[in-house]
Amino acid sequence: MLRIMNVSRRFGDKLAVNGVSLDIPQGQMVGIIGRSGAGKSTLLRMINRLADVSSGHMECDGVRTSELRGQALRSWQRDCAMIFQQFNLVPRLDVITNVMLGRLNGRNPLLNLLGLFSGDEQLAALKALERLDIAPTAMQWAQTLSGGQQQRVAIARALMQNPKMILADEPIASLDPRNAQIVMDSLRDINADGITVITNLHTLDTARAYCERIVGMAAGKVVFDGTPDELTTDVARTIYGADGLKEAFSEALTSTSISPLSIKSPVASTAP
Ligand SMILES: Nc1ncnc2c1ncn2[C@@H]1O[C@H](COP(=O)(O)OP(=O)(O)OP(=O)(O)O)[C@@H](O)[C@H]1O
């Protein structure tokens, strides 16, 4: 169980995250939605400790993760792998090496310097690529792959950390609808294995289609926390504001008007 307890983050005068409290049981698939600037990325980055909390605490299975230092912090960061909108691959390295880089944290630094990976690591990377259905690309340079394939490589790299949770910051924001669907399907499949997935999403149709729990943020605060069914138009107005509603629902403005190929539990979808 991840516990976020009255957490705030300030940047100068700006309160990016304001008194957020959430309990997220292991294995949940959570979508965080809200307008640009609502505080979604900052919240995710604080979970992973890419950013520190200004006040409040975070805990996972009884360990105060918001206060970890040194080796314990690195171990926590392995437990909660992050993926990003821009994939963050090394473009002129082959796919399999990019995936193996997921093991860098926690290895002998000398082996890292020499760029040496064991047979076991290579096998694990290939298995991760197979799981994401992109093993045939293993020897290609990452930059030759489509955006959707690159994001799947990033997910495979995250899996190399054997994480308890995956934190995905707008993972489909730069993808076309077909690739967005493949990536969301991949995240859902990984979640079905018991890995918690917490993903920031700009639009609520994708969150509704894939996430069993949706957290809505506005101006740094949680203004909604519930199931897709509970996310009514009135609630959406609170999250996005009256002028933001169109953006939240509009298929023209988003690449995320998609529905899953198959859904593990019966959740509502507004997609056609
Ligand atoms: N490093 C930083 N320095 C100063 N201000 C920041 C920093 N990071 C975030 N902010 C501010 O905090 C607020 C929340 O930003 P955040 O990126 O968390 O929002 P978001 O909901 O993820 O938005 P987006 O969907 O555009 O990424 C914004 O006003 C942003 O400008």
Automatic annotation (TrEMBL):
<dbReference type="GO" id="GO:0005524">
    <property type="term" value="F:ATP binding"/>
</dbReference>
<protein>
    <submittedName>
        <fullName>Phosphonate ABC transporter ATP-binding protein</fullName>
    </submittedName>
</protein>
<dbReference type="Pfam" id="PF00005">
    <property type="entry name" value="ABC_tran"/>
</dbReference>
<keyword id="KW-1278">Translocase</keyword>
<dbReference type="InterPro" id="IPR027417">
    <property type="entry name" value="P-loop_NTPase"/>
</dbReference>
<keyword id="KW-0547">Nucleotide-binding</keyword>
<dbReference type="GO" id="GO:0016020">
    <property type="term" value="C:membrane"/>
</dbReference>
<keyword id="KW-1003">Cell membrane</keyword>
<dbReference type="InterPro" id="IPR012693">
    <property type="entry name" value="ABC_transpr_PhnC"/>
</dbReference>
<comment type="similarity">
    <text>Belongs to the ABC transporter superfamily.</text>
</comment>
<keyword id="KW-0472">Membrane</keyword>
<feature type="domain" description="ABC transporter">
    <location>
        <begin position="2"/>
        <end position="244"/>
    </location>
</feature>
<dbReference type="GO" id="GO:0016887">
    <property type="term" value="F:ATP hydrolysis activity"/>
</dbReference>
<keyword id="KW-0067">ATP-binding</keyword>
<dbReference type="InterPro" id="IPR017871">
    <property type="entry name" value="ABC_transporter-like_CS"/>
</dbReference>
<dbReference type="InterPro" id="IPR003593">
    <property type="entry name" value="AAA+_ATPase"/>
</dbReference>
<keyword id="KW-0813">Transport</keyword>
<dbReference type="GO" id="GO:0015416">
    <property type="term" value="F:ABC-type phosphonate transporter activity"/>
</dbReference>
<dbReference type="InterPro" id="IPR050086">
    <property type="entry name" value="MetN_ABC_transporter-like"/>
</dbReference>
<dbReference type="InterPro" id="IPR003439">
    <property type="entry name" value="ABC_transporter-like_ATP-bd"/>
</dbReference>
